[in-house]
Amino acid sequence: MSMLEKLLSIPKNACSVLTVSWISILLVGRIYDFHVAYVSFLEQIKSEKWLLQHCQDDDFFHNLQYHTDLCKEVVENSKIWPSLYGINQSASKMKLCGLYDCGALFSVIYSGGIPVMVCIFLMYIVTPSFILPLLQRQYHAYCEQNMLARCCPIYKQPRYEPIDTYVDYATGSKVKHV
Length: 178
Fold this sequence. Notes:
With 178 residues, the protein is mainly alpha-helical. The protein has 8 helices and 2 strands. The protein has one domain. Strand 1 (165-167) and strand 2 form a beta hairpin. The longest helix has 45 residues, at 3-47. It is elongated and about 115 Å long. It starts with a helix and ends with a strand.
């Protein structure tokens, strides 16, 4: 791998880390919003159970004649699946930067000052998903060099030796071509 390829792989890895982190934050935020909406809707349905049963009674319904919209709402809530309600609430609260609006997130980071921005920058540089590809590439290059050195005697020759020398495979020694 040439030096140029190594230099070009650094921004590619950094972009990959940022993209994976961003998608992970979005997923965690959506799962959290879904869970909160799901649990709160289940609690709401549970608390409206008594009211739903009594709204079926005509006497109770006529006593609440000024609050008939309450009974309609309770009946409509009983027909909604809690999981679909949770997905709808999660999708309606979706923010591009995870749990915060992007403007609010940038203001929080900026209000932390330069130390916070440096820490975030270093976190993305030092993160394992950024370092591991670099270490793997170096390890594979090291293994390839070792394999070539063991399997190909010509590979062992320094590059400054003249071309008129070669390795005798029987003895393993260098022989000058006459």
